[in-house]
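Incident log entry.

Two folding requests arrived from the same account within the same minute. Monitoring flagged them as a possible duplicate submission, but the sequences differ. Recording both here for audit purposes.

Request one:
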Amino acid sequence: MKYLIHYPNDLTNDIIKKSSHFIIDTFIAWYRSLPFYIYIKPSLNQFILNNRWSKYLLFVLCYFLMKASRQQNFLSLNEYLQRIYIYQKQNSLPIISQDIIHEFRNFLIQLDQLQLTNIEFSLLNILLVIQHGKNK
């Protein structure tokens, strides 16, 4: 994430890809380090690794942005969102992405208001990846 924060120019596809791959690799390492990993059937572990990384990635990104924006040497939430808007305009993303960005901003604000501890954040990550239900 440091690369995204300290990069002086606009976001590029390459920067986004590198950061995303790093976060996905981090998710795999994190999930495999959970104490219950060895007790779950390999097929279920593979399902979780293949299908739940996006929830992890989004939640980690939101938490990181929220935490980093509180520190003086990092960009504010609005500055992060401004970079996303610029990326959207430069790449001619569909209008629906504006709604997604708006919802993303609202989620960041609500997450910030929760003032989660690192332990609460970690527990929520576990719940996100092992949840069972209609929204898989």
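Request two (distinct sequence, not a duplicate):
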Amino acid sequence: MTENEPMAPARKPSFVWTSVIIIVTAFMTGAVSGYFDKMAEYGEASRTSGFAAQLVVIAIGLVVLGAYLSRFGRFWASWSRRKQLYAVSLSIAALLGFVTTLALRFGVGDGPSSDLFGNGQFDPQVAILVSALWIGGMALSLFIYHRNVDDHEKQAYLWGGLAGFYAVIFPAPVWWLLARAQMVPAVDGMILFLFAVVANAIVYMWLKYR
């Protein structure tokens, strides 16, 4: 290729194959979860072993996805460093959320309130591990994110954060007052947290992609 010849456009990964790898990994993770749940009912497996097996499946899926995407190195290299780091920060956040959900699911005890959003007792080691992952992973992801977002992204993020704030300060005191009057159940911090996350996501996505 001479200096005057234009560079050939970089090939892009197939959306179909990328989706297939992700969906198959998610399906296999769910299948492993169901298998170990059933084994645990008969006392032939522990929740910890099920959690470890799911992490292995996820790791294999990530290796396969990485191997596929590595064929399009020029596509990744065509991105600016800011865009690459932005993608890395989002990937860290997504992986953190997925691993946290798995860890909490297998770390909760048995009993009528043992579901993830119930009040069952967590294994102390799992609670410490997930707390450390949440603080450390979020801090790293946000540090990278805030150093590599453009003004449009920043505006969407700030307004999304404000919407999440409003989603807490409006219902929280009302819920607290009604609970004190024994008209509704006690205030649940995780439900308020979910209100904030959903409101944040809706406003952020609307402003970013409209």
